[in-house]
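We emphasize that the prediction below concerns an isolated chain of 519 residues; any contacts that depend on oligomerization or on bound cofactors are therefore not represented. The input was used exactly as deposited, without trimming of termini.
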Amino acid sequence: MADTKREIERKYESDTGTLPDLTRVTGVASVLHQGVSHLDATYHDTTDARLAASAVTLRHRTGGSDAGWHLKFPVAPGVRDEIRAPLSDTLPDELAALVRSRVRDRPLLPVVRLRSDRDVHHLVDTDGRLLAEVSVDTVHAERLTGDGGTARWTEIEVELADDGDPDFLDKVEKRLRKAGVRPSESTSKLARALAETAPDTATTPTPATAPEAAPRQKRRSRAVGTPVTAGDHVLACVRAQHDALVELDPAVRQDLPDSVHSMRVATRRLRSTFRTFGSVLDRESTDPIATDLTWLAGELGLDRDREVLAERLGAALAALPGTLVSGPVGDRLTAWSEARHAGAHGHLTAILGSRRYLTLLDALAALLEDPPLRKKAGAAPEKVLTRAVRKDLDKLAALVTHALELPPGTDRDVALHEARKKTKRTRYAAETAAPALGGPAEELAGAMKSLQGLLGDHQDSVMARRTLRELAAVAHAAGENTFTHGVLHAREERRAEIAENALPEAWKSISKDLRPWTT
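Result of the prediction step, given as a C-alpha cell string:
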C-alpha cells in the first residue's frame, strides 16, 4: 500500500562540500550526526521523457530508511508530494496508474542510475524536536540509455521536518549563504543527471506532449509564447485545460478533495472552447473530441453531483430545529452519500484506465501538436473573439427569455437548466477572450458567474427535491417517519421559488450592463 509524504526541501552547491556550523541558525540547539547511508536509485521514464517534461520523478531505491518505489509530483518550487510503495521487482500497479495520464501506452524504462553516499545531520531544538534534516550527498550518476555518460557531484540538501515551519528554511539558507554555499541550479538530482550525462553526439530527447502522428496538411505550427492572434488565444486555453486534465488525473485516482470537480470543469471548458470558437479551430476535427469530453464530464458528474447534494442536504438538516427532525434522517443521508461515493469512485477509476479516456488524452495532445486552425485563427483576436462571445450571449438571452415565459413547473425547470449550461459556456468564452479584450470581457465573465450562481441554486434545488423523494420512499418502506423529508422538500421548493422570482430583475440588470455586447 502506498503512502504520501509532503516533501519541502532546498538544494545547494558548495565548492568544499562541507557544512558550516549550523548551531548558529536561530532555533537550532544541536546538530546531531546520523552517519552515512548508501543509496542506489534507478529512475524510470519513457524514451521521450514524458515524466521529466512534467517534473515528475519515478524511482526504485535501496538503502536508507525509506527504501522502495518513490513517485514525486511537483506542488510548488521546492515542494513535492512523494508517494511511496514497498520494494518490489516491478512497478506497483497503484503507482503505474498515477502516471498513466502522462505516459499513456509508452513503456517506462530505466533511464538514470544514481548512487549516493549521504552524510546525514539532524537540526534539533532545545526539546530535541527535529527541525530539519541536512545531508551532504556525494552523487555518481550514470545514464542507462543511448550513449550517455557519467557524472559526479556533491550537493547539500536541507529537508524540512514534518509539520515544520517553512520559514525555518530561510534561516538555514541565510547561514549557508554566509558560508559561501549557493542554491543549486538544478531542481532535482535527476534533472542534473540528465543534463550532465547527455550524449556528446546527440541532444537530449525533447520531452513529448503527444505521440507521433502522421503530419496533417495545410496546418501552420505556432510557437508557444505570448498570444498574438485569435488562434494563439484559443490554443492557450486548450493547452491550459489539457494540462489540467493530465495533472488532475492522479488526484482523482487518489480521491483528493475537489479533484473530481476541478477535472469536470476542465472537460467542460475544453468542450465549450471547441464549440464557441469553431471559426478558429475546425469543428470537423474537434467535434469527435468534444463528444468524448461530454462522455467524460458525465462520468465525473456521477460523484460530483452526489457530493453537492450531500453537502446541501446535510447543511439544510443541520439548520432545522430539533422539533422538526423525526427519525434517523441524518443516518439515512450519510449512508446514501457514502454508498454512492464508494460506487462512483470505483467506477471512475475504471474510467480513467479505459481505452476511450487514454485515446481522448492522446487526441488532445495531438491537436495541440498540430492544431486544426482555420483562416480566422491568424487574424487579430479582437474582432474574431468578440463575435464568438457575442453569439453565445445571444443564444443565452433567448434561453433566459424562453424560460421566463413558461409557468412554474417541470418545463421551466428544464429550460432554466439549459440556460444555466449556456451561462457557463458564455462565461468560459469571456474568460478565454479576456486576455485579448480586457475589461469588457472580464465584466461579462463576472456577470455570467453571478447568473450562474442564481441558476445553479435553482438547479440544485430541483435535484435536492428529487433526492429527498427517493430517500423518503426508502425510509417509508423501512417503516421510518418521513415528516422531516417533507419539511426539507418544502424548504427546497421555497428556495427554488426565491431564485425564480429573483431571475427577471437579475437578468434585466445584467442585460443593461451588457449592451455593448448585444449591439
